[in-house]
UniProtKB/TrEMBL annotation:
Keywords, alphabetical: DNA-binding, Transcription, Transcription regulation
The entry's DNA-binding region: 33-52
Protein name, per record: TetR/AcrR family transcriptional regulator
PANTHER family cross-referenced by the UniProt entry: HTH-TYPE TRANSCRIPTIONAL REGULATOR BETI (PTHR30055:SF234), HTH-TYPE TRANSCRIPTIONAL REGULATOR RUTR (PTHR30055)
Residue span, HTH tetR-type domain: 10-70
Matching InterPro entries: Homeodomain-like_sf (IPR009057), HTH-type_TetR-like_transc_reg (IPR050109), HTH_TetR (IPR001647), KstR2_TetR_C (IPR041490), Tet_transcr_reg_TetR-rel_C_sf (IPR036271)
Length: 197
C-alpha cells in the first residue's frame, strides 16, 4: 500500500518533513531511519518515497527550505540607514528569525557534515549570501569610520556564530524575555565592532 486511504501529498509531504526535522534534531541524521520517519508520520516506509527520493534528499530539502525562508525574510527586511542602524537591525532580525526555529537551526548547522558534496555546495552558496549581507554592513561601517575590525569576514562569522548560539540555550519563560536578550546581544555585537573612542 503506497498511501493511507485519505492521505494527500499536500498534507503528508509537509508531515514527512516535520517528522524528519524533529527526529534528526533529537537523534542526529545518522541515527534516524526512513522507517522511523514513516512510523512518526503514520505511513508505511515505502510510501515515503512518494515524497522524497532518499534520506539525503530529505536532509537537503530541510536545509534548503530553511535557507530559502531566511533569505526571503532578509530581503523583505531591507535594512536602511547608516551602518550602525543596519547592524542593529540585522542583529535583531537574526535573533527574531532564528529563536522560534531551534530545530531548523540545529539541523542546518550541525548536520552540514552529512550532506553530499554537491548538496553541501548548494547550501554553502545560500549561507554565503546571508553572511555577505552582514559583511557588507561591516565594510560600510569601516568606510564610515564607526567600526574597527581586523577582518570583516572573520567578524562576520564570529557575530553570526554568537547570535545563532542563542537558539541552543534560550527558552521562553526564563529569567529574561526575548526583548531583554535582544538588547544584551545588540550591546555585545555593537561593542565587538565599535571603533575605540
Amino acid at each position: 500500500m503506497a498511501r493511507k486511504q485519505g492521505s494527500h501529498a499536500d498534507i503528508t509531504g509537509p508531515k514527512v518533513q516535520q517528522a524528519a526535522l524533529r527526529l534528526i534534531a533529537d537523534h542526529g541524521f545518522a541515527a534516524v531511519s526512513m522507517r522511523q520517519i514513516a512510523a512518526e508520520v503514520g505511513v508505511q516506509a515505502g510510501a515515503l518515497y512518494n515524497y522524497t527520493p532518499d534520506k539525503q534528499s530529505l536532509l537537503f530539502d530541510l536545509m534548503q527550505g530553511h535557507m530559502d525562508d531566511l533569505l526571503g525574510a532578509l530581503e523583505a527586511a531591507a535594512f536602511q540607514g547608516d551602518a550602525l542602524t543596519r547592524l542593529e537591525a540585522f542583529t535583531r532580525f537574526h535573533i527574531r528569525f532564528h529563536l522560534p526555529r531551534a530545530d531548523q537551526v540545529f539541523v542546518s548547522y550541525m548536520e552540514l557534515r552529512n550532506l553530499s558534496a554537491a548538496n553541501f555546495a548548494e547550501i554553502e552558496k545560500m549561507r554565503h549570501r546571508y553572511e555577505d549581507a552582514l559583511e557588507d554592513i561591516l565594510r560600510v561601517g569601516q568606510a564610515e569610520g564607526v567600526f574597527a575590525v581586523a577582518d570583516t569576514r572573520v567578524a562576520t562569522m564570529a557575530i553570526i556564530g554568537m547570535l545563532t548560539g542563542l537558539s541552543h540555550w534560550y527558552r521562553d519563560g526564563g529569567r529574561l524575555d526575548m526583548i531583554e536578550i535582544e538588547a544584551i546581544y545588540w550591546d555585545l555585537v555593537r561593542k565587538s565592532v565599535a571603533k575605540p573612542a
